[in-house]
Amino acid sequence: MGATLTELIHAIETADSKTAMVVAVTNLVAVQDVATIPTLITVLGYNNPGAAVAAVDGLVALGSAAVPDLLHEIDGYNYGARAWAIRALALIGDPRALPILLETAKGDFALSVRRAAARGLGTIDWSLLPPDQAAIAQGSVVTVLTEATTDPEWVVRYAAVAGLQTLMTTLIEPQSYKTLIFASFNQVFQQDDTPAVQARARLALDTLHGHIE
C-alpha cells in the first residue's frame, strides 16, 4: 500500500538532506493531485534547485489548477522562489499569467527568467480567452517579444524569436502583426552577432514563409 498524501508531505517537511528532499518532492509529484499544489509551491522557496525543478514539473503537470495559487503567492516570494514560480507559469501557458510574464520578459535582471518568460509568452493558450480579449493581449505580447529580440543576452533573444514564431501561428489577427514580426526576424538574421540566434531567425522565416499569406 502506498504512502498517504499526509505521509508524503511529512516526508518533505522532515527531509534531512538535499537528496532526501528531491526524492520526497518527486514522490509527491507522482501523486498528481491538486491537493499537493500548496506544498509544491512552498518547495519553490527552499534553497534546493533539484527539489524546485521537481516541484515545477509537478505544478506544470497539474496545469491551470496551479495558476491561482502561484499568482497569489508570487509577490510575497523571495527572488529565488519567484523565479521558479515564473518558470512554472511560463510552461503552463495560462493567460492569467500574462501580466507577470510580460513584466518579467521586459525587465527581470536574471537572463534565465527573462528567457523563460519570453518563451512562455509565445505558448499562451489563447483559447482560454474570448477572441476580442485575446487579440488585444496578443498585441502586447508582440510588442514585448519584438523588443526582446534586442535583449543584451543572446539566450533571451533566441527565446524571443522562438516565442514569436509560435505566436505567429496562433494570432487572431495575423495580418496586423505580420510586417512587424517578419521585420524583427529579418533584423535578427541580418544583424545579430550570435550565429545561433541568426540561425533561429532564419528558421522562423523559412518555417513561416508559406504559413501566413
Q: Describe it for me?
A:
The chain has 213 residues and is mainly alpha-helical. The chain contains twelve helices and no strands. Helix 7 packs across helix 8 and helix 10 (154-168) packs parallel to helix 12 (195-208). The model has no long low-confidence stretch (mean pLDDT 92).
Per-chain topology:
Blueprint: H1 5-13, H2 18-29, H3 37-43, H4 49-62, H5 67-73, H6 79-92, H7 98-107, H8 111-121, H9 131-148, H10 154-168, H11 174-191, H12 195-208
Helix pairs in contact: 1-2, 2-4, 3-4, 4-6, 6-8, 7-8, 7-9, 8-10, 9-10, 10-12, 11-12
Distance between the first and last residues' Cα: 58 Å
Spans of at least 5 consecutive residues whose pLDDT stays below 50 are none
Question: What is the total tally of β strands?
Answer: 0
Mean pLDDT: 92
Work out the strand percent: under 5%
Structural class: mainly alpha
Number of continuous helical runs = 12
Radius of gyration: 19 Å
Query: Which H/E pattern describes the elements?
Result: HHHHHHHHHHHH
- Main sheet summary: none
- Whole-number tally of structural domains: 2
